[in-house]
Design goal:
2 helices; Alpha-D-Glucose-1,6-Bisphosphate, Chain A, domain 4; 20% helix; 176 residues; alpha+beta; single chain
């Protein structure tokens, strides 16, 4: 299982952050490769999201389902088609780290775990002479960059102002 975790500190109460994150369809505004998000449900367990990505000569629609929620701390999800992947948003209050002038601080984590070898080569309509292994190796750093981009843009939007955001990124295997 390969993993990517991106985290940063947001200066808002956990409830406000949670309400922002549960509105998943708006994420298409934050990602270069995320073209559309359609939903069936309101963000509670069982809600389905159809997430269309486009990169290079490829386009793909992932099917994701919310598996559990623990407001205002956690949103768990899984992919339901084509590749084994799970993830979550975690909101961890850290009031002791709120700087002067801020009333709240929370560390917000985006975790994605995926098995790149669970993808079926028939899932994507690959160009001639392009292997799925090549696509997977090229996509890994893009997944990390997109996770960074999404978190940075969400912080600016949710706080209502742009600021320097320190991101902690952890990946396994380390070659991602």
């Amino acid at each position: 299982m390969d993993e990517v975790e991106v985290s940063t500190v947001v200066y808002l109460p956990p409830e406000e952050i949670y309400e922002f994150l549960v509105d998943f369809p708006r994420y298409a505004e934050y990602s270069k490769h995320l073209k559309e998000v359609r939903s069936e449900g309101e963000g509670s367990p069982g809600t389905m999201y159809y997430i269309t990505f486009a990169w290079w000569k490829l386009a793909y629609t992932a099917h994701s389902r919310v598996t559990d929620v623990d407001p205002p701390e956690r949103i768990d999800w899984e992919l339901t088609k084509d590749i084994d992947a799970t993830g979550y948003w975690l909101i961890d209050p850290i009031p002791e780290e709120a700087p002067a002038g801020e009333n709240h601080a929370c560390r917000v984590h985006l975790y994605i775990g995926f098995d790149p070898h669970s993808a079926d080569s028939n899932t994507l309509d690959l160009p001639r002479f392009v292997s799925l292994d090549w696509v997977i190796e090229k996509a890994k750093p893009i997944i990390e960059r997109e996770a960074r981009r999404i978190v940075e843009r969400i912080v600016a939007d949710i706080e209502g102002r742009h600021r320097e955001v320190e991101l902690a990124v952890h990946t396994t295997p380390e070659s991602i």
